Amino acid sequence: MLKIPEDLGFSAEEWEKIQRAVYWSEPDRPITNVTMCTSPDHSTFIINDFKDSYYVGEELLVTIVAKDFTGRPKSYGGDFFQSKAYSNKLKASVFGEVLDHQNGTYLARFTLPWAGEASVAVRLIHSSEGVQILKRHWDTDPDRVDFYGHFEGKNPQGAKMKETVACTVKWEGVAMPGKGNCCCEYPDVRTGLTWYCRKPPTLPCNTLVYYTFGVYKNHMTDLENKIMDKKHVNRWIKGDSHVIRVLASNATLGVREACKPGMPTPIPAGFYLHDVWTSFVCATRHFDAGNTTKCLKDKHIYIMGDSTTRQWYDFIIGSVPTLKRMNLHTVETNGPHMAVDVENNIDLHYRSHGNPRISVKWQIMADMHYISNEIDDMAGGPHTVIVLNIFAHFTTFPLSYFAYRVSLIRRAVVDLLRRAPETKVIVKTANTGHKDFYRTDWLSMQLDQILRETFHDVGGVYILDVWQMTACHYNTENIHPGPVIIKNEVDILLSFICPT
Asked: Considering the entire predicted model, what is its pTM?
């Protein structure tokens, strides 16, 4: 099995950077009861050196104090806090960077980007003790999720029959669930990846037609279940209720430079005002139906990933009246899907990133293609746009497996840009929104760090940050954001495709 950075597609230096990016500090003592954990009811925050008024562009600092369930201040770090400044009246918000002092206190840093009123909100996503539970089970539980393979064929008497067995990815640290004979293997020669299933009792291996997600498995102890109880997770904490008065200034906010590959993502990456996102990355535009059609004219757009990029596919179709869906008679969640605008010579495609996909709907095995293989089969060129993402379906698998999948995509992208440098490649980051033990934001953030580290030095690639956009909006947080957020995300995407 693949163990070392070179086998995973990374140099030793790259792997070291990834390890630093995903590092998270641990409690400095054994945790024996819930009262030792960070409490969302007792933790608090205060605005540093509060003033009667501020100016647009000024920095605001907030100190967060973590306390346990007895009200005692914590002496170590590792809590997962998120923060934002916001105004419900103005439909405005901005993401705050949280810095861990490793002593139970944290600093939240904000840029104040709009004139008017603002308030600060801080929430505890997971206590440091909860994060350690996530880490431990990520590292030690090889069978946290089951998949089922559905075989269809004929028995020796010629009658139609179906058989269902357990399946999963073949990778070190991933256990084959269930009981029975092992195994039918389905290797992909180009990627070196293998999906495999237990042998069905009667049917041969070549009769695998569908697969489905089975169940999650909880291996937590009683104490761990108490620490991870929903009433302790994703809670807004009480704190400084001062209303911040922000006055207009001559500060220039936003970026005038056109969107291009390789632009860094600052914190904050932008802000909402009246539900419109202003980017601090590049000069994003706002597109109506006519401008969207004009931007996509004569283009082949390939969107590959999970359901969060399929939202973009659906939104674009809804934005271009002449773009019509083709019924390819495929599974909704997986694809492949296609829409065509003959008048403007636009073809828009969506397909899944391939196995594994956690979905209750039956997935057609033959339609499960790896992104790297799809890119390898593309000619690319000035009329080709590739949009990709990968994260949400990998939080129950080892980090090494996800890292290898991402490195395969990077290798394919680098090769494509070498032979067709005018191809536009956009990498969408992870959304916030998952909060349960199996697919929480902390796990998504770890995968997102790997994705960003892998692509940040790849010339010709745009990294489109949506983490901050989904974390700070006033809408109820959901892994599938509402139309207001999707509209702003797609505006950035189109600004990358058509910067002028």
From this structure: 0.95
